[in-house]
Amino acid sequence: MFTRSSLLALCALVALALCSARSLAQHVPPRPPSLVPLTPPRAPDLAARARSIADEARLLRQFPIDLQWGTR
Amino acid sequence: MIRAPRSSLAALAALVALCSLAHCQRSAEGVCVETLCFSLPLTTSGLRDNGRHTLRPDGAAGWINVQRFVPLERPESTEPHALARALGRRFALASSYGAQGVLSTGVATLLQRQVATVDARVTVGERTLRRRLWLIDATGDEPWLLVDITAPDNDFDRALEQLGPIVTNLTKSQR
């Protein structure tokens, strides 16, 4: 027959086991930080720069003038 | 026969020498450079370099520049407003020797036709100049002419008052 003290100890053990199980069940591993989709670094607008250089070259061909003339 | 006094002959010789030095042609119309004749006084000094001229009338607040050039590529449009905008952009490009601020672009009458104009402020070193340009375009392979009045920024209005009518009333010489 179980003594009262052993029954109490058994109950305590069962309670402890139940608490541990519940605690484990509730434990959720931390979520990894959500990954923000990376946008590729903005590439320099080479096409626009090329257009600008072409425009400048065209203006120099259209107006081959010396704008420094007469400023001194 | 009436003999000219020696002083008159000396004055004539001095005038011829001055014209020779200035590389300009004086005619009944005034001072002519690159086929353009300006009603400028005889006391105008000149400077020339390969199709570029500067005419400085004595006592004027500013001076007149003339440049002859042939475009290596014709602009897309020779409509005066479009030409003025293009010349303004060309002017804004020349920043290697100082700030070039285009103040306005427009159209004016020169030689009985509409031509492009640009008003700009030019900074060269510590000097700030103002400039009004007139662009006389041509067809085919003929040279184009750029005429401007330039003066110190603070004296530009006076220069424009003195020289503006001379530019707007310029005539074409026959040569």
Structure commentary:
The complex is a heterodimer of chains A (72) and B (175). Chain A has 72 residues and is mainly α. Chain A is built from two helices and no strands. Chain A starts with a helix and ends in a 10-residue tail after the last helix. Chain B has helices at residues 6-22, 80-93, 156-168; strands spanning 25-27, 30-33, 36-38, 44-49, 52-57, 63-69, 100-110, 113-124, 127-136, 144-152, 171-172. A seven-stranded antiparallel β-sheet of chain B has the order 4-5-6-10-9-8-7, sandwiched between helices. In chain B, strands 1-2-3-11 form a four-stranded antiparallel β-sheet, with no helix packed on it. The longest helix of chain B has 17 residues, at 6-22. Chain B is globular. The chains are: A mainly alpha (72), B alpha+beta (175).
Structure at a glance:
The complex is a heterodimer of chains A (72) and B (175). With 72 residues, chain A is an all-alpha fold.
